[in-house]
Amino acid sequence: MMAPDAHDPSMIECQSAARTLYDYLDGRLDAVMSARIDHHIATCTACAEHFAFARRVLALLPVAVPLPEPSSPLHARVTSALTAAGLLTPGA
Ligand SMILES: [Zn+2]
After folding, report:
1. What is the Å distance from ligand 1's center to 16 Cα?
2. What is the per-residue pLDDT across 29-66, written as a single tens digit (0 to 9) for each?
3. DSSP labels for the chain?
4. Ligand 1 centroid to 2 CA: how many Å?
């Protein structure tokens, strides 16, 4: 049994909320801790903004991770022009 907070045991501090931010967004917190974070975000504007920002960043990550397409439109145009001119064998 952990020592209860001095005040409302359902309350957590901003520092605790920030520490659990990524676990929370990953859904790795247990139901009790997750509910405490929910409650904190609902009552703390600073953390609400912090969590909303982190959520947006995480949402963008899958888009940012894939490697860029190696062949550019220019490369494709040059390749097709060379192929049409008989200077390049398709698939070579
Ligand atoms: Zn806070």
Report:
1. 9
2. 999 999 999 999 999 999 999 999 998 888 887 665 55
3. -PPPPSS-TT---HHHHHHTHHHHHTT-S-HHHHHHHHHHHHH-HHHHHHHHHHHHHHHHHHHHSSPPPSS-HHHHHHHHHHHHTTSS-TT-
4. 21
